RNA sequence: GUGGGCGUAGCUCAGUUGGUUAGAGUACCAGGUUGUGGCCCUGGAUGUCGCGGGUUCAAAUCCCGUCGCUCACCCCA
């Protein structure tokens, strides 16, 4: 084999397409139900947008971006997430004059240079939702509900949100100091990774999976008990809304997200069947981001959901997507006149929106029938010497195993009626 | 970036302590029906045994290197 797909990328073959269609269809239905409009920012942006938007010290920016110089010597980066690009799109196109909240969604590929594993790829596809300009926790509920309803309508069972609040620039730094102080008293028992986290990204200390660190995490100060009044109110109101709607959720004190811009609400939806990953969906509130990128203060909340992970999880749970319609008629033929008639009839049937296949070349009727069977069509129209001579078509129903002769000029009508049934 | 497992036919895999022309299932093609699919029967085609080097009379098998895939860690959808 001379050429292979690049590490961490994958081919989506016909067998998997029904999943994609099914999911996309549900996304369109639900976003329009909630009043979200689609936007498509470009796949690449100026590198500095992501550095500023995602955060200089995040893993994504430090080691996972596909960054290159184009021929004009501009530093370009394939998007490692949607939010920064959507914020840029919002500002550049003056969308801040629209009635708030501005509610947007996107679907498209995301690129991160990571080691691939089950449920993780270097190119994956995200369904992304953003709501801008609204502080009311009801918008948090709305955004979370989009994710919820999508998975519910796809057929997922036993859904639960993982929920936490990461505070705001007011209360979070104070909490981080408290957390650091606590950890410094236990520095002799924590793992090397955690020692590094203590300096660089203290919130991630809580997410360590090493057994030896668990006792320390268990007794660590909890952020929800260190929130400022505003953040605590927001968090409590959101919980009351979730209770009202009967949406199950688990307060997860260890849930911190890897991007710098999150404030207040952070959440994930977990699923089975995606290897050691568990999130099909992750998101939260980012009230300072638009300002950070040069706009006016504009609160926002959103999430990203990985479609490949949704599909893996659907397969795991045995959820079948709606099938894609395949051709139901095939035209077989023999002899010069039959062949001509077959070409003509194929295209006429397609003009009538009848999904039709033409048998190509000069082959035995047996081999044409075999192909028809393999392609799972229901009807085969046979146009051979006998049929042409008698000005008829033989129509064989492969499911029933029955065959009838129909006058040539009535065959299209005959099939059209059969197919309707 | 770190660690484990694995690279044999289009696909899924077998290949015993190194030993003749490397196998099975499935898919594919043909015949069994000189105009009729599926099921069944018979036959056929298909491989640089990932790549490079080494050990040996002899390597798919052992050793080294390399590339790739995969799972996990970090992190994330």
Keyphrases for this structure?
421 residues; alpha+beta; BirA Bifunctional Protein, domain 2; Rossmann fold; 8-stranded mixed β-sheet; 5-stranded mixed β-sheet; 38% helix; elongated; RNA-binding
Order of strands across the biggest sheet?
1-5-6-11-10-9-7-8
Structural class: alpha+beta
Q: Please describe the biggest sheet, giving its number of strands, its sense, and whether it closes into a barrel.
A: 8 strands, mixed
How much of the residues is beta strand, in percent? Answer: 15-25%
The termini sit apart by: 47 Å
- Number of beta-strand segments: 16
Return the CATH topology of the largest domain: BirA Bifunctional Protein, domain 2
- Report the radius of gyration as a whole number of Å: 29 Å
> Which whole number gives the mean pLDDT?
91
Q: How would you describe the shape?
A: elongated
CATH H-level superfamily title of the largest domain: Bira Bifunctional Protein, Domain 2
Low-confidence stretches: none
Structural domain tally: 2
Please give the share of residues in helix.
25-40%
Architecture (CATH level 2) name of the largest domain? 2-Layer Sandwich
CATH hierarchy, class of the largest domain: Alpha Beta
Tell me the number of helical segments per DSSP (H or I, 4 or more residues long): 15
Can you walk me through this structure?
This protein has 421 residues and is an alpha+beta fold. The protein folds into two domains: 14-171 and 227-317, BirA Bifunctional Protein, domain 2 (2-Layer Sandwich), CATH 3.30.930; 329-420, Rossmann fold (3-Layer(aba) Sandwich), CATH 3.40.50. 38% of the residues lie in helices and 21% in strands. It is built from 15 helices and 16 strands. It has helices at residues 17-34, 47-54, 59-64, 83-92, 137-154, 172-184, 192-200, 214-218, 229-244, 289-292, 307-317, 336-351, 365-374, 385-390, 411-420; strands at 37-38, 44-46, 66-69, 75-78, 102-111, 123-132, 161-165, 249-251, 263-270, 279-285, 300-306, 329-333, 356-358, 379-383, 392-397, 402-407. The strands form three sheets. The protein has an eight-stranded mixed β-sheet with strand order 1-5-6-11-10-9-7-8. The protein has a five-stranded mixed β-sheet with strand order 13-12-14-15-16, sandwiched between helices. Strands 2-4-3 form a three-stranded antiparallel β-sheet. Strand 12 (329-333), helix 12 and strand 13 form a beta-alpha-beta unit. The mean pLDDT is 91. It binds one RNA strand of 77 nucleotides through residues 1, 4, 7, 58-60, 63-64, 81, 110, 112, 114-121, 124-127, 193, 204, 207, 209, 257-259, 268, 274-277, 279-282, 303-310, 332, 334, 364-374, 380, 382, 384-386, 394, 396, 398, 401, 403.
């Amino acid at each position: 084999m001379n050429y292979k797909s690049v590490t961490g990328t994958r081919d989506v073959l016909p067998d998997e397409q029904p999943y994609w269609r099914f999911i996309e269809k549900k996304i369109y239905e639900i976003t329009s139900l909630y009043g979200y409009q689609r936007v498509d920012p470009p796949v690449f942006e100026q590198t500095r947008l992501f550095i500023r938007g995602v955060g200089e010290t995040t893993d994504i920016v430090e080691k996972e971006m596909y960054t290159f110089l184009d021929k004009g010597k501009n530093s370009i980066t394939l998007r490692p997430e949607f939010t920064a690009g959507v914020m840029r799109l919002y500002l550049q196109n003056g969308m801040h004059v629209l009635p708030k909240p501005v509610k947007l969604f996107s679907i498209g590929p995301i690129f991160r240079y990571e080691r691939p594993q089950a449920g993780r790829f270097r190119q994956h596809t995200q369904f992304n939702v953003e709501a801008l300009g609204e502080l009311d926790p009801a918008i948090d509920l709305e955004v979370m509900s989009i994710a919820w309803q999508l998975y519910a309508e796809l057929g997922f069972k036993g859904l639960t949100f993982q929920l936490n609040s990461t505070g705001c620039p007011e209360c979070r730094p104070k909490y981080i100091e408290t957390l650091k102080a606590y950890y410094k008293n236990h520095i002799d028992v924590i793992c090397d990774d955690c020692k590094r986290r203590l300096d660089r990204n203290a919130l991630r200390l809580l997410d360590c999976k090493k057994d030896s660190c668990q006792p320390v995490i268990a007794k660590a100060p909890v952020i929800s008990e260190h929130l400022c009044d505003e953040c605590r109110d927001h968090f409590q109101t959101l919980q009351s809304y979730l209770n009202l709607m009967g949406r199950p959720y688990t307060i997860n004190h260890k849930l911190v997200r890897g991007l710098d811009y999150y404030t207040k609400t952070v959440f994930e939806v977990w699923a089975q069947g995606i290897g050691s990953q568990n999130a099909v969906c992750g998101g939260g509130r980012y009230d300072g981001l638009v300002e950070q990128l040069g706009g006016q203060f504009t609160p926002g909340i959103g999430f990203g959901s990985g479609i490949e992970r949704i599909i893996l999880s659907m397969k795991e749970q045995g959820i079948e997507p709606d099938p894609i319609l395949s051709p139901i008629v095939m035209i077989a033929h023999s002899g010069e006149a039959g062949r001509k008639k077959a070409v003509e009839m194929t295209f006429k049937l397609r003009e009538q929106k009848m999904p039709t296949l033409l048998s190509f070349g000069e082959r035995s009727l047996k081999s044409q029938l075999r192909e028809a069977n393999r392609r799972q069509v229901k009807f085969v129209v046979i146009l051979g010497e006998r049929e042409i001579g008698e000005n008829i078509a033989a129509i064989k129903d492969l499911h029933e195993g029955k065959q009838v002769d129909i006058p040539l000029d009535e065959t299209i009508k005959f099939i059209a009626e059969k197919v309707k049934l």
